[in-house]
Amino acid sequence: MFSGIVEATARVVAIEHDGGNVHLTLTCPFAGELGIDQSVAHNGVCLTVVRLLETAEGPAYTVTAMRETLERSNLGELREGDEVNVERSMVMNGRLDGHIVQGHVDQTALCTDVEEQDGSFQFTFKYDTSKDLVRRGYFCVDKGSVTVNGVSLTVCRPTEDTFQVCIIPYTYEHTNFHNIKAGSRVNLEFDILGKYIARMQSLL
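User: That's the sequence. What structure does it adopt?
Assistant: Structure tokens below.
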């Protein structure tokens, strides 16, 4: 379980393809504190640490993304040198600064516009939708929560298949949002509470 408050950005230092799986090796400020079997969210995707190692860039770790994960997220598009938003699992006796994030990405979205607004930034994203997806809770509501590349954000001006988020300078600088531009693909996790409500409504 995560909160959507990104701790740092990790840098991809190696990628290994193994059948339908991809092993990603990354380094980040807390890599030396990780243990085998620990869960870390990568662009919002919960992955398990399977190996610890030392590299020229310092402590690093490896996680494995399987086919289902690669099909639902942007992790399959990563290249060596790319930045990834990372967050360790939530401590249950701490404050929930973001919202309840499972680390289970639902689908990707396409950035269609980035607008600077006197120091802050407004991003517009477009995602696939259908009546079936809406029944599963894959939609946004105004002032609701959504996770974009692992970042807990508040939805602005949602339409049937788009929404906007506003990013303050700190978030822009300390996550990989500074690399997102029109045409970039991002990971989405919709609000788990909304999913449960949508599911119950569909069964009534």
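Residues 16 and 23 are 5 Å apart (CA to CA).
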